[in-house]
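Recall from the previous lesson that a structure prediction takes nothing but the amino acid sequence as input. Here we apply that procedure to Olfactory receptor from Terrapene triunguis. The sequence below is the only information supplied.
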Amino acid sequence: MEQRNHTVVTEFVLLGLSHSRQVQLVFFVLFLLSYVVIVLGNLLIIVTIKANSCLTSAMYFLLCNLSFIDLCYASVTSPRMLADLLSQRKTISFNGCMAQLFLLHFVGAAEMFLLTVMAYDRYVAICKPLHYMSIMSRPTCCRLVAACWVGGFVHSIVQTILTIRLPFCGPNKIDNYFCDVPPVIRLACTNIYVIELLMVSNSGLISLACFLVLLVSYTVILVTVRLRLRDGKWKALSTCASHITVVTLFFGPCMFIYLRPFSNFSADKSISVIYTVLTPMVNPLIYTLRNKEVKDS
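The prediction returns the following tokens.
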């Protein structure tokens, strides 16, 4: 049939986190408060760093960019989720779904790369302190941040093209509260074996590679800190501890979702809450509570 060569699904139905109206109202209050904390917390960090002339090192420049990314990342899914929690009919157009999918992977991959850059920044600060200012200069930091965004764009455009070229002719119910590659491609009217392998090689392996780089970086840092504790390196250890907390919260769920092709667990959408809502919310708390300079400012 000719329809097989064309997209006949014009909208998707998002099943959300629960079918119970009472539970949805509870989720609305919780996620609304979470989103307010995300917006205010990350904006406060950005304004504080920009307004304080003492916070000019590479670490604070990267932290400012992380807060901006967290703000964008949460805004891709949270406003739509909040609206759907109060709506009887939770639908999203095909184009809107593809746009959300693109933005989610664009900003999410940029955050992965930025967290890797932040680990490198801490490595240089602790292992090569005398060369820190020259290695992590402002032009270098700007180039690294730009590379994170470019890498995120390339990753996301590949994911989106692979998804948008699939034929969708029904069903159109997505078992999640936002559009993401795994639940969307399972609705395609074709064999998705190759697409799922590409998804693992793209999203899954990128997550795993960044996580392994981070793991090696922080292992080297912790070894170095242990050897230099008598020189007053507890502050550096505290900073690394906050980074490791963020990395665990962000990369753990991502690897669980994207490194498992050909399987779909009901817990996937609950785990998605961790990296779409919880991580952007706790980042400001983790970085401010464990950083004396930011708290003082």
